[in-house]
């Protein structure tokens, strides 16, 4: 197959993947449970949907959303975790703050025992300040300080300015000269823009949102509801080994 055909095939695959995920987000694949109403750009919770039976082709397309990079500074947990959580978040979203400070720490036991892997995705949809803070988080990742910075951005949110974001970077032990250079570099701007565009192409329009295994959740769920969904995902046939 020549290069042009390879590229055409990849474009077609990505288009189908986006359509499939969009349908999952919309609730098309939810069995016996109606789709939740469309949430505002910043959402608290919508009723969790029952995990649906999906075809192998659909599952493969969902799995292709996972980065599964062993050196990924924006991921927590084992590459072999049976449940991968894709998190889509905005640092100016109050519900994202609540989830990151309350629910995320309570998932640590799942991460530690190899059950769950979490991959963070920037979805800055609340304006230019959200975009700048997302760029700051990417700059922190380049110094392997993403999760420390992520926590501080929510626990002790700075002013959404380059100066304040750089000052916070220094407080968590980063090289501030490198951080300043990376904050608004062409590579960082492109990475954030592409990640946001990809999330929106999947039909995700509110934060926080999650793909948990093969289930879509929109909202800052407390730990008991995450436990419920994770346990349901673990009961899927492919996890019964």
UniProtKB/TrEMBL annotation:
PROSITE patterns: THIOREDOXIN_2 (PS51352). It comes from the Bacteria. The keyword Iron does not apply. Keywords: Disulfide bond, Isomerase, Oxidoreductase, Redox-active center, Signal. Residues 33-55 are annotated as: Disordered. The keyword Coiled coil does not apply. Residues 43-235 form the Thioredoxin domain. InterPro entries: Thioredoxin-like_fold (IPR012336), Thioredoxin-like_sf (IPR036249), Thioredoxin_domain (IPR013766). GO terms for molecular function: isomerase activity; oxidoreductase activity. Pfam families: Thioredoxin_4. Belongs to the thioredoxin family. DsbA subfamily. PANTHER family: DISULFIDE BOND FORMATION PROTEIN D (PTHR13887:SF14), GLUTATHIONE S-TRANSFERASE KAPPA (PTHR13887). This is Protein-disulfide isomerase. It comes from Arcanobacterium phocae.
């Amino acid at each position: 197959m020549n290069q042009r055909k390879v590229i055409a095939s990849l474009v077609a695959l990505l288009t189908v993947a986006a359509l499939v995920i969009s349908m999952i987000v919309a609730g098309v694949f939810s069995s016996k449970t109606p789709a939740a109403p469309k949430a505002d750009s910043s959402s608290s919770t919508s009723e969790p949907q029952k995990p649906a039976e999906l075809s192998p082709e659909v599952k493969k397309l969902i799995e292709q959303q996972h980065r599964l990079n062993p050196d990924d500074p924006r991921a927590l947990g084992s590459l072999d975790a049976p449940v991968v959580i894709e998190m889509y978040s905005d640092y100016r979203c109050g519900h994202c703050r609540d989830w990151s400070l309350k629910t995320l720490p309570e998932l640590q036991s799942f991460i530690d025992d190899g059950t769950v892997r979490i991959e963070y995705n920037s979805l800055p949809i609340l304006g230019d300040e959200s975009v700048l803070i997302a760029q700051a988080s990417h700059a922190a990742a380049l110094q392997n300080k993403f999760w420390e910075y992520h926590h501080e951005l929510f626990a002790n949110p700075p002013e959404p300015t380059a100066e304040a974001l750089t000052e916070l970077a220094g407080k968590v032990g980063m090289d501030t000269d490198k951080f300043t250079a990376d904050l608004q570099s062409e590579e960082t701007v492109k990475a954030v823009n592409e990640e946001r565009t990809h999330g929106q192409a999947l039909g995700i329009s509110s934060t926080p949102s999650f793909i948990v295994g093969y289930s879509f959740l929109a909202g800052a769920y407390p730990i008991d509801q995450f436990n419920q969904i994770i346990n349901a995902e673990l009961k899927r046939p492919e996890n019964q080994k």
